[in-house]
Amino acid sequence: MGLAIYQVDAFTERPFAGNPAGVCPLPLPSFPDAGWMQAVATEMNLAATAFLVRRGSGAELDLRWFTRAVELELCGHATLASAHVLWETGAVAAAAPIRFHTRSGVLSATRRGKWIELDFPAERASTLPEPLPRLAEILGASPVWVGANRFDLVIELADEGAVRALAPDLRRLAALPYRGFMVTARAAAPGYDMVSRFFAPALGIDEDAVTGSAHCCLGPYWSERLGKNSLLGYQASPRGGEVRVELAGDRVHLGGQAVTVLRGELAGAATAAAAAAAPAPAEALAG
Question: In order along the chain (287 residues), what is the average pLDDT of each group of 10 residues?
């Protein structure tokens, strides 16, 4: 029998929109070798694939995320997708909050009607001390403001039209020392506060469809400029998606919806490889 694996479109209420993520709940005592998880994520060929290991019998799980090329420190859409799968399959009771233990600390997920709310760290950006040479040339647009947080470069453009029309030089972006590049402007469309796009060619993601972790930065950024703590962002990728953002001190609450589009299994050979790659439990190692 194979391992169950799911594909979920996150930050959308309809299939074939938002950001697709793989979700692989593992019936193992600990994570298998990172090389096996990376191979599965590369095979899935999505922006991110999440791997889950349950802690006991409750709603506490360990969570790791992999792109096609690397392991991530923080990923919003695959966390949203993971929570959706756990509730949808009954692995966690529908009303129970979920706590994920990750490389970025404990992240929680709570159901709010049809929406899922994630509790993530705020990732504020600071103005770059010196301008990046030829950034406007690489982007093909003139920035209004440029800053960075521990992950990404943050670039504000003059208006929503400039964000939507952007066609950066991805090869040159990949050579810069940042995980990704979030490009943003104040939204022109009614009902939205901010619009953005996210490029991460060095991670194997030329343009991400909807980036939860980027809104951990965009939320505080636009909150200061617009004077409000609750915002609605639209990520203007070809697939597009909405992210609700609410500031809570040094935390950010991200809200989104999700829909499962594929249910399958990793076949016997892949399942056997995962079991073989899993470290033995501590008591077995001690014995």
Answer: 92 96 95 96 96 92 96 97 97 95 97 96 95 95 96 97 98 96 96 97 94 97 97 96 96 97 88 72 35
The full set of domain ranges for the chain reads 3-119+258-286, 126-249
Strands 230-235 and 194-200: parallel
Please, what is the Cα angle at 260 between 17 and 45, to 5 degrees? 70
Spatial contact of 110 and 255, defined as CB atoms under 8 Å apart: no
CA dihedral (170, 172, 178, 184) positive or negative: negative
- Matching fold, domains 3-119+258-286 and 126-249: yes
Enter the DSSP assignment of 269. H
Within 13 Å, how many C-alpha atoms sit on residue 259's CB side?
9
Domain 3-119+258-286 has CATH 3.10.310.10: yes
| Burial of 108 from C-beta contacts in 10 A (0-12 / 13-18 / 19+) | middle
Residue 271: predicted pLDDT: 77
Long-range CB pairs of 226-231 (<8 Å, 24+ gap) are: 226/186, 226/193, 228/193, 231/193, 231/194
Tokens representing residue 224 in the block: 């200061």
pLDDT recorded at residue 269: 67
Class of domain 126-249 (CATH, top level): alpha beta
